[in-house]
Every structure is written in structure tokens, then in C-alpha cells.
Design a protein that fits this description.
Elements (H helix, E strand, L loop, with lengths): L6 E5 L5 H8 L3 E6 L3 H10 L4 E2 L5 H4 L3 H7 L7 E6 L23 H17 L3 E6 L11 H16 L6 E6 L10 E8 L25 H5 L83 H7 L12 H10 L3 H15 L49 H14 L1
Parallel strand pairs: 1-2, 1-4, 2-3, 4-5
Antiparallel strand pairs: 5-7, 6-7
Helix pairs in contact: 1-10, 5-6
């Protein structure tokens, strides 16, 4: 099976991270369904050969996918893989910090996009499916995305005589060579019911036997420099230099080595979170606040190029738009090296292509030595008023977020 038979219909393409990985695995993206203007500018800048669908909104595209394919000059039978990841916010862990909690399938962004995905499957009947999202997508219960997807594929099987058997694959990207601790779920299925056996992790934490996980230094060490234009802003910016590499605000909680400025687990995990040179990066966020990391070990923001490196985008790939738009695009993307690894497995096992490459090409090389940790500084005087005996978070389900949700529910019930 050659590249001409490995054509992809890309949904929710974004900046193209998933498609870049599939491209490296030998697939050809024929049509992209993406509505965001900044992402469209990025795709046009880097891959003008990737056609943009008309309509380019997934909800509208799903109303008549075959007509959209005809307008693009593509036959339904040409599509080997339908790939894409709908918006993850309805299933995101960050939702637990809101008064409403994570809405999951109650969120219109979830049920409308998943329904659109299923409509497109029903119309096109691709040979294989690849669906990506955050771990919360797979939590149990009828309000969860994965179970809605399973029910939809079962309905398509009864209606079309297909044998799509969805497989849920939970992955930490660092276990497969991405220099970033990033947990995601993938759902794969084949039209004739073929199953994919996910290989065990190819990379392991340092200090254990095997190929070492790639670190932040492996990815961006050659870009190491102080950059004044990337200095952090806001109330907490001056506190960042007093936190060691690889740590977050918890350093400044009782008994952790710093000053008792905060209560244990009373802040969001990414608050004042810093990279360490000798570890994989923490998860890149799409919409961080001024105090939300990960920050560089030099106590600054990460540059757009560094963000791309940590997502294993090729160096020649440029992100269009403002700094904020670039961060959103990169943070929402699938690490290209992880997509390449999954694409290789789909190509080899589901599409049974004997010419599949044996290993990913987008993983950064490993540097065996690392510079010393960046020295920390004293806590600035303006933060010392926070020193006191702070209470720790009371425990799972007992914090202010849970109280706010209970109060909201009681108010709605009155």
C-alpha cells in the first residue's frame, strides 16, 4: 500500500499537530475541516497543499460530507483514515475548578462535535478512525464522551453492516519519546473490525533500564538564553525565581523547603510551575493565565519556538497569529511525534501496509549530560506578608470548588 492509498480526512485540524505526525508516518492529508482563522493561517503558511473544506466548520460539514468531498475533488473511497480531536474543554480537568464543574456531554461543544464526527463516519465509512481527546473524555458514565462515541459506532454498525470496534488507548506522551508529560486518550477502530495492539512504552524514566524519556533540555537546550521580552507579568512574577526547577507553588507550602506562603494543594497544579532540564516538560497549556506554567528554568515564558519543540513540531513549521493565538494553537495540538507513532501502528496493523517505517522520526535526540540546575533566589520582601500557618486543602470533593457547585445546584433546585 503506497502513500496514494493513505489519504486522511482531518477534522478539527487546528495547527496540524496530528496531521504532521500522520504525514511523517506516510499518510497524506487531503482535506482539513477547521474554522479558526489563526489555525487556517498556520495551515496555509506551512501546508498549502492541504485543502480546506467548504464548509470549513465541522458541524456544517457533517450535514452533507459527501457533497463537501465532491467539491474538493475527492472520492469517498479514497479516504483511508478519518482523524481528529474535537474541543477538549468539556472534558478537561480544569473544569473541576469552576463552580459548574466539568460539563462533559452536557456541553454543546461536546455533543454537537461528537455527533458531527459520527455523522461523518456514517456517510464516508472510512477504513480506519482515529479520535483524540483528554483523559476526562473516557471517564465512565452516560454523560461521558467515550460511551457516546461507542453507542454511535454501534448504531452505524447496525445501519451500515460495518464492524467498527472502538479501542480506547490511554497514553502519556513521554512514554513514547515526546519531551513532555502529556496524558491523552485515543480511540481507534477499523471498518472490518481489525484490532490494534498498542506496543508497550518505548521510553522510560531516567534511572530505569531502557531508552530514556526525552527531557526539556533534549528539546530546547540549544535555545537556552535569557529573553527580556518573555519576562512573566502579574502579581506573582517576582516569586518565580525563588522556586527550584521542576517545582511549583507547593515549594512554598509548609515543610517543602521554601516559605509557608500557601496552603498545601490550595492552588491549581500549574501555578508557578517550572521546567527542569533533566525531566520531560510539564503539559503545555492552551490558555494559561499570567501565573500558570510551565515556565522556563530561567524564570521566563517559553518562546513560541520552544513550545513547538516541546510538541515535537518540525523546526521549519511556523505558527501564525499573536503570541496568545500561537499558545492556543500549540497547546491544543497533538504532539507530532506521538501522532506519528500512532499513525505507524494504524498503518501497519489496521491497514496492513508492509512498507510502514519501523520507528518515529520526530523524536528529539537524547543528550546524556545536563547543565547544573539554575540557582534559586530569596523570596522578595513584598511576598513575606503571606507567611503564616495556611490550612491545607481539605481533600478530594471537599474544597471550595465542590462547595460552589453544591451551592449552584441548590440555587437551581429552588
Amino acid at each position: 500500500m503506497g502513500r496514494r492509498n493513505l489519504k486522511v480526512l482531518s477534522l478539527f485540524t487546528g495547527a496540524g499537530g496530528l496531521d504532521l505526525g500522520l504525514e511523517a508516518a506516510g499518510f497524506v492529508t487531503k482535506l482539513c475541516v477547521e474554522i479558526d482563522p489563526d489555525a487556517l493561517a498556520t495551515l496555509s503558511l506551512n501546508r498549502p497543499s492541504w485543502k480546506i473544506a467548504d464548509p470549513n466548520d465541522a458541524i456544517q460539514f457533517a450535514r452533507d460530507p459527501l457533497a463537501a468531498l465532491r467539491r474538493a475533488g475527492i472520492k469517498r473511497s479514497e479516504i483511508a483514515l478519518l482523524a481528529g480531536g474535537p474541543p477538549c474543554q468539556p472534558f478537561s480537568k480544569a473544569g473541576y475548578w469552576t463552580a459548574q464543574g466539568p460539563r462533559r456531554m452536557r456541553d454543546p461543544r461536546a455533543y454537537r462535535t461528537i455527533r458531527a464526527y459520527l455523522r461523518i463516519v456514517d456517510s464516508i465509512l472510512p477504513k480506519a478512525l482515529l479520535f483524540e481527546n483528554v483523559p476526562g473524555f473516557a471517564y465512565s458514565g452516560r454523560a461521558q464522551g467515550y460511551e457516546a462515541l461507542v453507542r454511535g459506532l454501534r448504531w452505524i454498525n447496525r445501519r451500515r453492516g460495518t464492524k467498527y470496534e472502538p479501542q480506547l488507548i490511554k497514553i502519556n506522551a513521554a512514554d513514547y519519546g515526546v519531551p513532555q508529560l502529556r496524558e491523552r486518550v485515543f480511540v481507534v477502530a477499523h471498518r472490518r473490525g481489525r484490532l490494534l495492539e498498542m506496543p508497550p512504552p518505548t521510553h522510560v524514566p531516567s534511572g530505569t533500564t531502557g531508552q530514556p524519556q526525552r527531557t526539556a533540555w533534549d528539546a530546547i537546550g540549544d535555545l537556552d538564553a535569557a529573553k527580556e521580552e518573555l519576562a512573566p507579568q502579574g502579581r506573582w512574577a517576582g516569586l518565580l525565581s525563588s522556586i527550584p526547577e521542576g517545582k511549583n507553588y507547593l515549594w512554598h507550602t509548609p515543610g517543602q523547603g521554601g516559605k509557608p506562603l500557601f496552603g498545601w494543594r490550595t492552588k491549581y497544579w500549574s501555578f508557578l510551575l517550572k521546567l527542569a532540564k533533566n525531566q520531560p516538560a510539564w503539559t503545555i497549556s492552551a490558555s494559561p493565565g499570567p501565573a500558570i506554567g510551565p515556565f522556563h528554568w530561567r524564570n521566563r515564558l517559553l518562546s513560541v519556538k520552544e513550545l513547538c519543540r516541546l510538541q515535537t513540531f518540525p523546526d521549519a513549521y511556523k505558527i501564525a497569529g499573536s503570541r496568545r493565538a500561537a499558545q492556543r494553537q500549540i497547546g491544543n495540538a497533538v504532539p507530532a511525534a506521538l501522532a506519528e507513532f500512532i499513525g505507524i501502528q494504524i498503518r501497519r496493523q489496521l491497514l496492513r501496509d508492509s512498507s510502514t517505517p519501523s520507528r518515529p522520526s520526530l523524536i528529539p535526540s537524547h543528550k546524556r549530560t545536563y547543565p547544573r540546575r539554575t540557582a534559586i533566589r530569596k523570596v522578595l520582601r513584598r511576598y513575606l506578608y503571606l507567611q503564616r500557618n495556611h490550612r491545607a486543602h481539605p481533600g478530594t470533593g471537599k474544597g471550595p470548588g465542590r462547595r460552589d457547585r453544591n451551592q449552584t445546584a441548590q440555587a437551581l433546585a429552588m
